[in-house]
Give the backbone structure.
Amino acid sequence: MANLTAERELALDFLRVTEAAAIESAKTMGQGDRKHSDHVAVEAMRKVMDSVPMNGRIVIGEGERDEAPMLYIGEEVGGGMFSDEARAEFPEVDIAVDPLEGTNLCALGANNAIAVLAAAERGGLLNAPDIYMDKIVVGPSCRGAVDIDAPVKDNLKNIARRLGRDIDDLTVICLDRPRHRKLVQDVRDSGARIRLISDGDLSAGISAAVAGTNIHALMGIGGAPEGVITAAAMKCLNGEIQAKLVWDPDRLGVDRSKVPAAEIVMERLRSMGINDPNRLYDTNDLAPGKKIIFAATGVTDGALLRGVRFFGAGKRTHSVVMTTDSRHIRFVDTVHVEGGPDAVIRF
Ligand code: VTB
């Protein structure tokens, strides 16, 4: 990115982007149509993204160019309303988006749906394939205390020691899936408490890195793209993620016919420059960028962010914006006024 000032200004531009996606998807909350909720979030995000003064490129998005009409991998975004001369000065930015994380959560009106993105200088975010990823996420006090390959009990012991409490006082958050049967049993056997969630391991990972949420670790298999965005958040929050790609149907607890064959996955990984599919990724491998911006806006109420509220004269959104350089974590409560000069703003 050109300079620090540019990065800070972009952070606020990206805030407008996640706010817009959150507002549009929140309008559809509870309608039971996850595809529609996602679609309106994507459209809103794409539209506002184009007004951001940058030469942006989507590295994690809605899929390949031929599968997604907007925010597809490789799509160039930003700078839409500026002249070519102005655009030549804009920073080059790679962007990972999840316009609606938790489409089901939004469709059902359940907690923790968010609109989210991460940005970095070119090459600052891993171009992860859209397959599964095993993850362990912890906060700043537990950095260096966990090992994704170690037994669950050992990790929990180390987390407890770092947090100065007993294992029984820990809560692990995990997607509620059959593939996690053993993981859940291991956590239970170790004595820790567990919170099973139906969707949304990205916002869950973030809550594991923020003290006061009463979540101390995220464990288990979710999406790889979400893992990269989580890593971007960890860089800003001083947390840690360790991760490994997963494609084996036995580990995923699904029928072989439900996932692409191993050879197809390997070919795809190679084409993305990933030669060792078994490698362990840490925070910096997933988000190597030096200048990272992370922005998320609550769609439905959640552990960290409130959902969008609608009232006569406008809407109110709640977001978090963080950058690696500024060392600021901003929780932003925005009132979007629509009702003209007589609109009443409620605190
Ligand atoms: C994962 C997780 C996401 O969807 O991708 C999950 O990372 C899908 O897992 O946060 P399944 O295929 O087992 O349903 C989310 O939960 C987003 O909704």
